[in-house]
Design brief:
Strand order of the largest sheet: 1-8-10-9
Distance between the termini: 44 Å
Radius of gyration: 24 Å
InterPro entries: ERG24_DHCR-like (IPR001171), Sterol_reductase_CS (IPR018083)
Order of helices and strands: HHEHHEEHHHHEEHHHHHHHEEHHEEEHHH
GO molecular function: Delta14-sterol reductase activity
Mean pLDDT: 91
Number of helices: 20
Largest sheet: 4 strands, antiparallel
Shape: globular
Family: Belongs to the ERG4/ERG24 family.
Oligomer: single chain
Keywords: Lipid biosynthesis, Lipid metabolism, Membrane, Oxidoreductase, Steroid biosynthesis, Steroid metabolism, Sterol biosynthesis, Sterol metabolism, Transmembrane, Transmembrane helix
Low-confidence stretches: 1-14
Protein name: Delta(14)-sterol reductase
Amino acid sequence: MAPKTEKQVVRKHEKFEYEFLGVFGAAFISGFLGPILYAMAFACNDISGCPAPSLLHPKSLDLEVLKREVGWPGVRGLLTWDVMAKTLGLYLLSGILYRILPATETTGTELRNGGRLKYRFNAFSSTMFTLAICAAGTIAQGADFPLWTFLTDNYIQFLTANIVISYALATFVYVRSFSVKPGNAELRELAAGGVSGNILYDWFIGRELNPRITLPFFGEIDIKEFMELRPGMMNYILLNCAFIAKQYRQYGYVTDSIVFVVAIQTFYVLDGQFMEPAIMTTMDITTDGFGFMLSFGDLVWVPFLYTQQARYLATHPLVLGPWGLAGVGAVLAAAYAIFRLSNSQKNIFRTNPNDPRVSHLKYIETKAGTRLLISGWWGIARHINYFGDWMQAWPYSLPTGLAGYTILSATTKSAVEGATVMLDGRQVVPGEAKGWGMIFTYMYVLYFAILLMHRDRRDDEKCAKKYGEDWEKYKKIVRWRIIPYIY
């Protein structure tokens, strides 16, 4: 059979189906996610409080006062050449480790053109190698290890540098996608969902499915797979570790809350990297093109939004104690069990439905030849694994409690009751900010819920087209989408 051309793929869609509310959604996300992260970085700070005191009294808000409270550096101060160079250095290190460390090589799933791309996996060993260097540096220089101070002292500039890189990368792959030719030997092809013809939307969603580039020494690099689990995830861990070091520099000790948060988030990253080959069957790799959505998400949104809890605890240390740790640990254990056991049950059933562990499960035989489980974990909710995944987000935020604090200057004459005192004499108190800080520390839980609901909707549309009446029958039996008896 002759391979399909890109034009044939486009013609299959008589009416192009937009994602993320189409062009409007693409424009909103592209233009406002960056400012949202800036707002979070400035509004919840280590200078005046979280939120900044003036934000608690919007009617009397004075812009000049607010600028002082948030440490506004001016537009030119948002990025420096030094920080940009060092940020690119971290990306370079990631690329070098990708090339020189031992790796597992495999082929991806079959493409529309019938070919299969080769992939090189060593994200886990790359991260462990980097962390080993950081551990040695920390042993030698303590909390003043230069990488830790660089990340926290230049947090805003580091954020800006990664935003610039994400925009530049999205633009590069978009422009380069126009060199894709039908039947090319490199197996390059366009993403079916990224050829709407609208420049903004296609740039956002990703026009080329698996953009690759060949560089001296580094060889061929699959840009999408590389960015998915390497620079952003590495920065995720490094930022968290830097915040632990910052807490120590500010207080002279490290609390159980920040250790717990950083430990479970590090496990989350390492678990994903250890299982790196599993990414080959995800929608990100098989379906979505690589554009601004994934570029910004991988390099900016994940490392900077997901580390808000550690960033908060670095300035407002909270002690959970044995019972507190047991509580959040129990939530995490239950969530992880639901996530892993449900996924394992599905994978075993797909591989060998006669396996004794799943042979008793009930299912619907569809006209498409696929079996849809209607008992066991998958009889509880259509995406019970999403429920477990979302539950795992809560232990990230719960250690921050009723978040919110105000920072009193070192010149405050007497100690305030309930204050935590920094080594420089400043006092951190909940004050009237108590509870308002949850806007920042619990945003990840809200965002993740929205993300999973959107994924569920996309999957529902996909399955409705694939299974037709069988899918409607299935939904009448398994009524709940993600959360049993609620949603």
